[in-house]
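Methods — Computational structure assignment.
A single polypeptide chain was analysed. Its primary sequence is given first, followed by the predicted tertiary structure written as structure tokens.
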Amino acid sequence: MAHTYLASIKINEKIYETAITAFDILLDVLRRQGLTGAKPGCRNGDCGACTILMNGRPMKSCLVLAIEAEDSDITTIEGLVDSPIQKAFVDHFAFQCGYCTPGFIMNIHGLLLNHPNPDKSLITEWLSSNICRCTGYKEIEEAVLSVLKENRQLPEKNQ
């Protein structure tokens, strides 16, 4: 039986005290806390459905050990409030079934935090880290470009 210990993980500006083992992945710990926006997809880092922000950078939570998150600021889709990219996804119908949508939103939110004025090639590069099987990427790209065009207020870097 694996040994567990109590970890303190800061998620969406709230401290969660939770029992973890050395091999727990962050995705599973988030979901056990009721934060189910990060979706289990491939569980090997290929699809991006589980993307979260760790210290302001997109990370695939299926590849992060929960123990690595202890001294980090984690933001999940549940922690975004009125993010411009969320509204743009709705406005541009940049989703179909919706399973991959939280991962795309977190990835693009991270892009805009770290590169407030990305060019089209950088947007395409960042979009390539997530997979959508239902629709094309045209609407997703249009959503990102609309945020840049409308110069919507971007959140602070700590999100």
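Note: The two ends are 37 Å apart (CA to CA).
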